[in-house]
Amino acid sequence: MTLTELKRLYANSEIVEAVIEPSIQANGWIVEFRHRRGGFVPLTDGSGSEKCYHDIDTATERAFEVGFHQVRIADTF
Predict the structure, then answer these.
(1) Nearest-CA neighbor of 17 among 32, 6, 30?
(2) Inter-residue contact 52 to 31 (CB < 8 Å)
(3) pLDDT in tens, the chain (77 residues)
(4) How many CB atoms lie within 10 A of CB 41?
(5) Between the CA of residue 59 and those of 12, 37, 54, what are the distances in Å?
(6) 18: burial class by Cβ within 10 Å (0-12, 13-18, 19+)?
(7) Considering the entire predicted model, what is its pTM?
(8) This protein's superkingdom (predicted)?
(9) Cα(34)–Cα(55) distance, rounded to whole angstroms?
(10) How far apart are CA 77 and CA 8, in angstroms?
(11) I want to staple 9 with a disulfide (CB 3.0 to 4.6 A). Which of 14, 40, 44, 55 is the partner?
């Protein structure tokens, strides 16, 4: 979902957690949001492709833009 769509979900309390984790497909980090009914919703661009960031700080900023004040960093180590 795009940033605008995710902001709407956040305002309606549909997403309850922001999670940043390593990207499987690229060398970087993705931002996902836990839906209140279960499952995750990824941050995507307008064409539906998952957004990948080269550093945790930029990925965290996107989660903050949605409305969250904290994020969970999921690490594979």
Answers:
(1) 32
(2) no
(3) 999 999 999 999 999 999 999 998 888 999 999 999 999 999 999 999 999 999 999 999 999 999 999 999 997 65
(4) 16
(5) 22, 24, 8
(6) buried
(7) 0.90
(8) Bacteria
(9) 21
(10) 33
(11) 14
